[in-house]
User: Fold this.
Amino acid sequence: MNGKGLMFFVAGAALLGVLFVAFKPGPPPEPASAPGVAAPVAPAPLPAPAGPKVFELVVEGGKLAAGPAVIKVTEGDEIVVRITTDKADDLHLHGYDVHAHLKPGETTELRLAATRTGRFEYELHKAHVDLGVLEVHPR
Assistant:
């Protein structure tokens, strides 16, 4: 092959490379849908519904007989505390300043959202007896 033939070969190869890059095929086209009809879209997964966190407390003889002495939750959690006692009193949750009126032999629910972080005592208000704490950890 002489110099002229080699030059035509290199020029032709370069031209083919440029044409390939310029006209290379893209991704396959999306299937067309009929006019006025939306193409099907896969639904986004839904988050699992987060129900309230439920805690059961039993108070007997002015003391916590059953249930957690430390209730641990995360900021933003919905909380339900179910309290059963053998004497009338009020459950007071410090820091949130909420009360639940307790009647002997009945289960009372205290519902709240954990909007404040920290450590908060809960007590039998009239008897001035500490039962435990609510710990709300930051999200």
